[in-house]
């Protein structure tokens, strides 16, 4: 939840750019991979940055987002470019009453034809999570971190409990970011209703989901940078796990009892260990 006075559009775009830059720095967004969106439920003046407008049909009906403004990266855009050229790589979508249609606002600098191909998943998560939390703000981020995505290719890691316990055992900080673990979803074709529906369901239980052989999606109702932080924490755990595999699994990491003691000391409810 964001309290008034609400951040200016320029600040939101800058933070989206910061998140995209960080994803590029940790090799989580090769080429045009990855996408970001931010949903805002307060009045947003789009005229200065996005003066061009046309009607669009949304990829799914989201009546719960009626009146909201969604800032989203364009299809084929590179997340690393958002910071330097935000209006060339972002569009703003306002949702009409009923949630089936909207208006898309773009800049004369716009470098794409439509929002990200994962826009259906973004909209579905925004509607579901904002309904659950009652928040007026949500950032959603999809990226493809190398080590997490590699581990998702290994059969024994294709399980929420196993995946979570093995990534969260390497540093004390990770359990605070993922107290219910990291959800794991079997492979689905990108952009499909199956991916969207499974993603929404798992994000009700976990604040990050691994899309098998594809990447991750996470969210934050505070800042897009906080969503990026979660990916960075998880990817760091995956790096440790990959190192351990390379060295013959000689590392033990934190034991289940170690994590339980950390959680007890900090009064943290966790369901992973």
Automatic annotation (TrEMBL):
Residues 14-242 form the Class II aldolase/adducin N-terminal domain. The keyword Transmembrane does not apply. Pfam families: Aldolase_II. GO terms for biological process: pentose catabolic process. It comes from the Bacteria. The keyword tRNA-binding does not apply. GO terms for cellular component: cytosol. InterPro entries: Aldolase_class_II_sugar_metab, Aldolase_II/adducin_N, Aldolase_II/adducin_N_sf. Keywords: Lyase, Metal-binding. SMART domains: Aldolase_II. One of its GO terms (molecular function) is aldehyde-lyase activity. This is L-rhamnulose 1-phosphate aldolase.
């Amino acid at each position: 939840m964001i309290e008034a006075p609400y951040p200016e559009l320029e600040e939101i775009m800058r933070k989206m750019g910061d998140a995209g830059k960080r994803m590029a720095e940790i090799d989580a967004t090769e080429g045009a991979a990855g996408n970001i969106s931010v949903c805002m439920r307060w009045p947003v003046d789009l005229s200065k940055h996005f003066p061009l407008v046309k009607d669009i049909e949304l990829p799914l009906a989201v009546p719960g987002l009626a009146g909201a403004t969604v800032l989203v990266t364009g299809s084929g855009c590179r997340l690393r470019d958002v910071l330097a050229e935000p209006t060339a790589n972002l569009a703003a979508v306002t949702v009409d009453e009923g949630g089936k249609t909207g208006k898309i606002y773009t800049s004369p600098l716009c470098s794409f034809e439509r929002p990200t191909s994962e826009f259906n998943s973004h909209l579905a998560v925004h509607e579901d999570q904002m309904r659950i939390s009652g928040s007026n703000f949500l950032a959603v981020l999809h990226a493809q971190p190398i080590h997490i995505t590699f581990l998702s290719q290994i059969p024994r890691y294709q399980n929420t409990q196993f995946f979570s316990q093995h990534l969260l055992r390497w540093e004390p900080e990770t359990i605070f970011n993922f107290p219910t673990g990291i959800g794991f979803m079997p492979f689905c074709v990108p952009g499909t209703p199956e991916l969207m529906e499974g993603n929404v369901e798992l994000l009700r239980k976990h604040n990050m989901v691994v899309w098998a052989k594809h990447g991750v999606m996470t969210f934050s109702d505070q800042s897009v940078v906080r969503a990026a932080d979660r990916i960075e924490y998880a990817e760091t755990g995956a790096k440790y796990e990959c190192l351990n595999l390379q060295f013959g699994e000689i590392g033990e990491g934190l034991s289940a009892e170690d994590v339980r003691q950390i959680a007890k000391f900090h009064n943290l409810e966790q369901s992973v260990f």
